[in-house]
Amino acid sequence: MARINDNYLKLQAGYLFPEISRRISEFTQANPEASVIRLGIGDVTKPLVPAVLKAFHEGVDEMSSGATFHGYGPEQGYDWLSQIIIDKAYKPLGVDLKTSEMFISDGSKCDSSNILDIFDLSNKVAIGDPVYPVYNDTNVMVGRSGQMNDAGYYEGLVYMPCTEENGFNPDFPTEKVDLIYLCFPNNPTGTVATREQLKGWVDYAIGNDAVILFDAAYEAFITDPDIPHSIYEIEGARRCAIEFRSFSKTAGFTGVRCGLTIVPEELLGTTIEGEKYSFNKLWNRRQCTKFNGVSYPVQKAAAAVYSDEGWTQVQEIIDYYMENARVIREGLSAAGIECFGGINAPYIWLKTPEGMTSWDFFDKLLNDCFIVGTPGSGFGPSGEGYFRLSAFGERKNVETAVLRIKEKWGK
Ligand SMILES: *Cc1c(COP(=O)(O)O)cnc(C)c1O
């Protein structure tokens, strides 16, 4: 019989979201009348904007005639899309990129996982705690870790606690690492890194020959003009960082699928013989072999996000979600609940009242207020005692949820 990849058995069996669903259905069966409000989801709720839909339809129509049909496109994405993104999203930040450094993909969950293909297994990896589970689990899957220990950490991976004390911007790893995952604005904590903090990371990476894997999936939600949107706004980052972006949260593409990865030409690693080699070349080779590009209509739709009309429409939806975030943040604060995030990100990371555990607070919120959120402990041991609420909902529901919380805790 063929051997399985035993590394998969080291993973905790997808515990968080199935357990949430189980508790919700148990509750709704016992309380069929209760109007449950879900603020736990990490998915957008608003439909695609008109300008994007129009381009999407046009792309599909072009596929109907021999003269305008598109077969396989470039594995790296169409140059016209990369050029639009460079011109509209990067140049205004003072960042100049070549289209050969940009790789269009079907999303950044895949990219931030697949990127491990081009790094040797011997590399030491550092990740945040709490963290977007993908970084952790994909490293376990490829065999970079041992078993999970009692503390909830996988042996062999380096964890960087993100706590109230360090402002949820982790301290540098205490041992030598080769790869550092950073996600700003952060999921789940909703916090951001300042220019000085990012410069600290870039200097650290250069000084320690490490590569930063920078997940900027939520950059479009930054409202503070002083917060960088791209790691390449920091001098030196082209020599030490790969950046992931996604149309998922920015433009409602979670079900459409489009993202991108930047691998600068200056980013080098070493071969087994100790010679320098370009990660851009490796990623290009990887994509050409294992990926056949994003569908033509989807790339047309993605380009329309950056049209004047498209950008205005997309920005309106982002503003809508960020107003939800403000309502949640201010409402909870008024009820005496300590909140983080929610200013430059669509997530509010709250400290559970009365020192409750994350799961106890989950149960209390569900039973007393009929509200669903996400227990912080599900994102890692340092998430214990915290709770994530998402701003991707309907305003009315958000307002009702806040009223219920104020009634319960705001005494
Ligand atoms: C939602 C999300 C993404 C985007 O994933 P896609 O595959 O592009 O939909 C990436 N990183 C984080 C941290 C996210 O929360």
Q: What is the terminal separation in angstroms?
A: 64 Å
User: What class, by secondary structure content?
Assistant: alpha/beta
Beta-strand content estimate:
5-15%
What binds here, in terms of ligands, is:
pyridoxal-5'-phosphate
Count of discrete domains: 2
User: Strand tally, please?
Assistant: 15
* Radius of gyration over all CA atoms, rounded: 22 Å
The CATH level-2 architecture of the largest domain is identified as 3-Layer(aba) Sandwich
Share of helix, binned: 25-40%
Order of helices and strands: HEHHEHEHEEHEEHEEEHHHEEHEEEH
- How would you name the CATH homologous superfamily of the largest domain? Type I PLP-dependent aspartate aminotransferase-like (Major domain)
Write up what this structure looks like.
By secondary structure, this protein is α/β, with parallel strands linked by helices. The protein has 12 helices and 15 strands. The strands form 4 sheets. The protein has a 7-stranded mixed β-sheet, sandwiched between helices. Strands 11-12-15-14 form a 4-stranded antiparallel β-sheet. Strands 1-13 form a two-stranded parallel ribbon. The radius of gyration is 22 Å and the shape is globular. The N and C termini lie far apart (64 Å). The model has no long low-confidence stretch (mean pLDDT 97). Bound molecules: pyridoxal-5'-phosphate (PLP). Residues 42, 107-109, 132, 183, 187, 215, 217, 246, 248-249, 254, 259 line the site of pyridoxal-5'-phosphate.
